[in-house]
Amino acid sequence: MEKFDIIGDIHGCLDELKQLFTELGYTWVKGIPTHPDYRIPVFVGDLTDRGPSSIKVIELVYQLVVKHMKAKYVPGNHCNKLYRYFLGNPVKHQHGLETTVAEYEALPNAKQQEVKQQFMELYENAPLYLTIPEVQAVVAHAGIKEEMIGQYSKKVETFVFYGDITGKKDERGMPERKDWARNYHGNQWIVYGHTPVPEPRFKNKTVNIDTGCVFGGHLTAFRLPEEKIVSVPSKQPYLPEKFRTYEE
């Protein structure tokens, strides 16, 4: 049976990603993390923005997913925005994109073209969300409702990228998000990120593994079929206001 290590939002935190691979028992073979039991890393999106090494994270994930086909990836909302930037669409350089663009613009032209091509290929070949029948799991960046699984519409895409948003803002000026996980009653695991939480949040058969690495929390993996959490501490400054807590 195949085994999977689903990894939360990286946001350019390359050092923590490398440390997490070590904690998970991977060794580096020709620059690629490889597991003796052939475990498959799955990235839950938001590879870039805010953190110090977005370009190198793109390059590593491209090598793993596209070139060596040893990992899986689903895009997050930050991935979608970077993709639109590379297409030449007018996107605002804020909410973290500005750090990735600064890194990108500092590269020589030939390297820029290489990174752009790698990311676009990675993004264009990624599923909106990933169903993993072997371990009865669905990986979706901000989550997915049970009735949406198997569907691909604009509504589903918005949910997968941004969660159950209402269109309103909360008291902090952040997009208001409904707690969809509270009403999930499916048999498959829904593994997601997007909303930073102080520790992995288990609700019904869902788990949020965005433990806010880029905000000084942890970078977290959820292992299946073992249903085990592995985390490494962040090297970034701790910003407690960036984390969401739930009334359980």
Automatic annotation (TrEMBL):
A GO MF label: phosphatase activity
UniProt domain Calcineurin-like phosphoesterase: residue ranges: 3-198
Gene3D superfamilies to which the protein is assigned, alphabetical: 3.60.21.10
GO annotations of cellular component type: cytoplasm
InterPro entries: Ap4A_hydrolase, Calcineurin-like_PHP, Metallo-depent_PP-like, MPP_PrpE-like, Ser/Thr-sp_prot-phosphatase
Signal sequence range: none
SUPFAM superfamilies xrefs: Metallo-dependent phosphatases
NCBIfam families: PRK13625.1 (NF010148)
Protein name as catalogued: Bis(5'-nucleosyl)-tetraphosphatase PrpE
Gene coding for it: prpE
